[in-house]
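Continuing the batch. This is chain 6 of the set; chains 1 through 5 are on the previous pages. Same settings as before, nothing changed between runs. Recording input and output for traceability.
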Amino acid sequence: MTAGAFVGIDVAKDTLDVHVLPTGQQLHCGTSVAEVRQLRGRLRRLRPRLVVLEATGGYGTTLAAELQDAGLAVAVVNPRQVRAFARAVGRLAKTDAIDAEVLALFAQKIEPPARPMGDAASRAMKALVARRRQLVAMRTAERNRLSRVDSVEVKDSIQTMLDTIAQQLADTDRRIHQAIKASPLWLEKAALLESVPGLGRVTAAALVAELPELGHLSRRQIAALVGVAPMNRDSGTLRGRRMVTGGRTAVRNALYMATLVATQWNPVIRTHYHRLCEAGKTKMVALVACMRKLITILNAMLRNNQSWNPRLA
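Output for chain 6:
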């Protein structure tokens, strides 16, 4: 086997399908610790240029982290991009083996960037932040149910669930806070982020966990990574509306809530928002523009290791 190969891995709960290009070699194995260790060894000997997996949940993330720990370049990509690519190259059938081949071809033709998964502490922090989002979503769903039922028994059941979720949220917040305090780097980042009016502890933790690139990219790169950079939609003489697309949904959602607050309490963002509205922009367009301005301010603050200063924003 020669170096410079491209590897696609389709990850399921119990199985892994591997395809290697340009050799066309295929491999099917389980997800046990021993089998994953064996696969990791084979890939290390192969010395591939890039390994590509889809972002399909915890199974893929865990495998990607293990492969990166072994020194392999790994890219975890959006499944929608891969399906669009598959349709573009005429691969309409779908099986695990075919998906692995499509991923290898995607790696070979597109060469998506291999982004670091972070160390064990970073992955644990990210999992805690994701768990907090799940708990908030469950709380919202239970509150909505509570407002629509008349049965006393059902109301009691829902309230019991809400009490449990509240306890879990408090415990998760405590664990997140402890994780940040245990890392001097995270603690410094969180302190800088929380110095911004309108940006609280929850949003700061989400940015620390989900956007480690913050402070290391240009303003255009960070806006595109989050998904708040306007994309052209032009064809011929037609000039379409600029739209935001892609990016990291969890980060964008956290930034959206922070920006809503900032339009009320942050003097720089509030002024920018009202100026855009007075210029005829819709409220949503103005809000997205404020999200982009806020994330570029945060990016500059972390890059320069500087707390909030409205004169420099």
